[in-house]
Design brief:
By secondary structure, the protein is α+β, with helices and mostly antiparallel strands. It contains two helices and nine strands; from the N terminus they run ββαββββββαβ. It has helices spanning 15-25, 96-111, and strands at residues 2-3, 9-14, 32-35, 40-45, 55-56, 62-64, 69-70, 82-85, 118-119. The radius of gyration is 13 Å and the shape is globular.
C-alpha cells in the first residue's frame, strides 16, 4: 500500500468506463493499475490536479489524494492489482487535462447524461 497525495493522486474508474478511456487516450495515457477483483482501473495524476473534479455518484469515479492509500503492484505482478500500462521513465503520470476531458466524455457515452448527486473528491 502506498499513500496518495505526495507523488501522485489516483483516479479510480470502473472498468466498464475505463476501457473506453484507455482506447481514447491511447499513447497519451500514463501508467494504469488494474484491479481485476474490483473491476477497476486507476490512473495516476499530479497531486491536486484532479481535486476539483466532480462526477455523478452513480458513475463510480473517485479521486484519491491525501489520506488515501492504493495497492501499487510490483513491476512483475500479474495477479491481483497489476500494471495494465506499466510506468516508464517517460510514461508515469497521465496529464490531468487529457484524462479529465476523456473521462467526462466516457461517463456520458457509457452511462448517458443524467441528473443525480455529484460526487466530488475522495480525500
Amino acid at each position: 500500500m502506498r499513500a496518495a497525495g505526495h507523488w501522485w493522486d489516483a483516479v479510480r474508474v470502473p472498468r466498464h468506463i475505463g476501457e473506453s478511456v484507455l482506447t481514447a487516450l491511447g499513447d497519451a495515457s500514463g501508467a494504469v493499475i488494474e484491479d481485476t477483483s474490483g473491476a477497476l482501473l486507476y490512473w495516476l495524476v499530479e497531486p491536486g490536479a484532479a481535486s476539483d473534479w466532480a462526477f455523478p455518484a452513480f458513475s463510480g469515479v473517485q479521486i484519491h489524494g491525501t489520506a488515501a492509500h492504493l495497492a501499487v503492484p510490483g513491476p512483475q505482478r500479474t495477479a491481483g492489482p497489476h500494471w495494465r500500462i506499466p510506468p516508464t521513465p517517460r510514461r508515469c503520470l497521465t496529464p490531468a487535462v487529457d484524462l479529465g476531458e476523456t473521462l467526462r466524455a466516457a461517463v456520458d457515452a457509457v452511462l448517458g447524461p443524467r441528473d443525480g448527486a455529484v460526487l466530488g473528491e475522495s480525500r
